[in-house]
Amino acid sequence: MKNSLVYKLLIISLVSIFIIYSIANFYSYLKINKLFTQLEQEQILILENRLTKVVPISLWYYDYDQIQEAIDSEIKSSLVSYIEVRDLDNTEIAKTTPTTADGLYNIQLPLFYKDKTDKKLGHVLIKIDTSSKNKLINELIEGFIVQLLITMLLISLLLYAYSRKFIVLPLEKLELSMKQIADDTADLTQRLEFSKNNTEISRVSSTFNRIIAKIENLMIASEKKNNELSAAIEELNRMQSMLIESEKMASLGSLVAGVAHEINTPVGIGITATSMLIDETTKIKASMENKTLSSSSLIDAFKNIEKAAELTLNHLFRVSSLISNFKQVAVDQSIDNEREICLKQYVDEIHSSLLPRFKTSAVKFTTDINENIFLKINAGQLAQVLTNLIINAYIHAFDEYEIDNREISIQASQNEINTIINIKDNGKGMDQKAVKTVFEPFYTTKRNKGGTGLGTHIVFNIVHHKFGGIVICESVVAVGTNFIITIPRVSNSSPTQNVVFS
Fold this sequence. Notes:
The chain has helices at 5-60, 64-74, 131-182, 200-290, 295-334, 343-358, 379-397, 432-437, 455-466; strands at 80-87, 92-95, 104-112, 120-129, 338-342, 364-368, 374-378, 407-414, 418-425, 470-476, 480-488. By secondary structure, the chain is an alpha+beta fold. Among the domains are: 5-157, Beta-Lactamase (2-Layer Sandwich); 336-502, Heat Shock Protein 90 (2-Layer Sandwich). It has a 5-stranded mixed β-sheet with strand order 6-8-9-11-10, covered by helices on one side. A 4-stranded antiparallel β-sheet has the order 2-1-4-3. Helix 1 packs antiparallel against helix 3. It is rod-shaped. 20% of the residues are buried.
C-alpha cells in the first residue's frame, strides 16, 4: 500500500493542503489577534480617560461613594477584572470584588486634580482580563482545525475516488496487459479502451495500443519467418541425409571398386595356374596314349601340377580373405545393428578392406590395440567413423607434403567407463583456424577434387548423437593430426535417431 501511486499522491496532497491551510489560518489568526488587540487598546484608553477625569474630582471632594459607584460601573465590562483606588498615603479608598481570572495584567494610573501639572491626589490600579479574548481566539483556532480536518477528509475522498477511476484502474489494466505480454499469454488482438480525453493516460494507452499493433505485426511476420525457416531446416536436413547416404554409398562403392581390383590379381593368377594344370594334364594324357611317357617326365609333370595347385590355392585363400573382410564391413555399414566386436580384429578388417585403394601410397599403417578390448556397439556406424578418418588421413595428411617416414597409427585403450581411440598421422597438420572448423558440414580443402566436406561431420554426428561420446581434433602444422574418440563401453547408439546439423 505504501508503495502505491494513490497512497503517495494522497500523502503529497494532504501535506500540501495542510501546509497551505495552516499558513492561511495562521495569517488569519495574526489578523484577528491584531484586530482584537487594537480594540482592547482603544477600550483601555477610553477607560483610562473616564477614570482619570471622574475619580480625581470625587477624590478631591472626598466623595468616596461616587468613586465606588464609578468603578463598579466600569467593572461590568468583560475587559476589566478589578479596580482599586488609593490616595497619596496609599490608603485604600475604593475597590471592586477581586477575581482569580486567568490572563490578567495591571495598569496603574496617577490621579491629578485637573492635569498632570496639578497636585497628585493618588492612583488607580486596573487589572485587565484578556481571558475572553484568548477564549474567543482559541475557539476560532479550534474552528480552523475542524475546518482543516473536514476539508482534508473530503479532498482525500474525492482525490482517492478520482485517482482510482482515472489513474489507478487504467494503470492496472496497462500493467496487466504488459504482464500478459511478458508471460506470452496476451491476446494481441485486444486493445486498451480508455476515455478519449486528451489526458496522459489516454495518450499512454494510445501509444501502448500502437506498440501492441506493431508487436502483433512482428509476431505474424516472425511466425511466417519461423515457418519458412522450419521448412528450410527440414529441407536442409533432408538434403543432408541424402548427402550422407550418398557419401556412404560412394564410400561403399569405392570399397567395392578397390576390393574388385584387388581380387582381380589373384583370380588372374589362379586362371593362369589352372590353365597350366590343364596343359600338363593334356601332355601326360598324350604321352600315355603314345606310350612315350617316362618316369622322369611324369615326375616333372607332377611337380608342375603341384606348383600350379599350390599357387591357385594360395590366391584363392587371398580372394576368400578379401571377400570375407569386405562382406563384414559392407554388411556392417548397411545394417544398423549392435553387436559385440573385438576392436583390434575389427580395425584390421576395415584397414584390410581399404588397403587396395591405398596400396601405392607408401604410408605405413600400424595399430596398437589390445586384443582384449571389446565393444558392444553399432559396428556399421563405427566402421563408417574409422573408414572416414583413415581415408581422411590417407588423402589429406600427406598431400603435397614431403616426408620420408609416412605413418598412420591407430591406438586404443579402455577403462571401466570409456574406450578411447586415437587415429594419428605424422603429416602436414592443420592450423588452429582449420581445427575449429574441421567438424563443420561441407568444410573441405578438396572441393575442386571431389571432396564433399561431410566426412568429419558424419564422424562428429555419429560419435556425439549415436554413441553418446565425444570426438576432438588436435593438430600442429608440420607435426601431424590426432583425432581422439571417447566412446562409452556400452554405447548409447540409437539407429532411429536422425543426424542433424551441429
